[in-house]
C-alpha cells in the first residue's frame, strides 16, 4: 500500500445513531473503547466469536483515534454513526496540513501499520479537510459475512 492507499475522499452520507468522543490524550482511549463496547452491546452487537464485526469496529476506532492523538493536533473528535448498513467511523483533529500517511518500508515490530489495518477492515476509507480539521474515516460492515475488501 503506497501513498494512494489512504485516498482523499469526502465522507459518505451516514445516517443513524451518532456516538461521539472528545479526546485530549491517549490515556482516555481505554475508557472510550469501553463505552463503545457497551453501546455496541446495547444495540445488539455483543461479543461473538462467529462474527467479529463489532471487535473490528473497536480496533479501527482505537487505531484512528490513537493516530490522531499521536500525530495530529488536539482536540480530537471520534465519531461513530451506527446505521443500518454499517458503521461510519470519522476521526478529526486540528492538523489539516498533514495527510494520513501509511508507514512505508518500516519493520512491523516498530508499529505504524494502523492505517493499513483499518483499510483492510473497512469496505471504504478516506480523508478530507473541512473547516480547519482533518477527518480520517472508514466504513465498516456490521457483519463479517457481508464484508468485501476495501478498494484503494
Keywords for this entry:
about 150 residues, alpha+beta, Heat Shock Protein 90, five-stranded antiparallel beta sheet, 3 helices, about 25% helix, about 25% strand
Helical element count? 3
Report Rg. Answer: 15 Å
What is the assigned CATH homologous superfamily?
Histidine kinase-like ATPase, C-terminal domain
Measured as a percent range, the helix fraction is 25-40%
Question: Element order, helices and strands?
Answer: EHHEEHEE
Mean pLDDT: 86
Total count of domains: 1
Largest sheet: 5 strands, antiparallel
Broad shape: globular
Low-confidence stretches: none
**Beta strands, count:** 5
Q: Under the CATH scheme, which architecture would be assigned?
A: 2-Layer Sandwich
- Widest beta sheet: strand line-up: 1-2-3-5-4
* Strand percentage: 25-35%
CATH topology group: Heat Shock Protein 90
GO molecular function, one term: protein serine/threonine kinase activity
InterPro entries: Anti-sigma-factor_SerPK, HATPase_C_sf, HATPase_dom
Domain Histidine kinase/HSP90-like ATPase: 28-138
Keywords: Kinase, Serine/threonine-protein kinase, Transferase
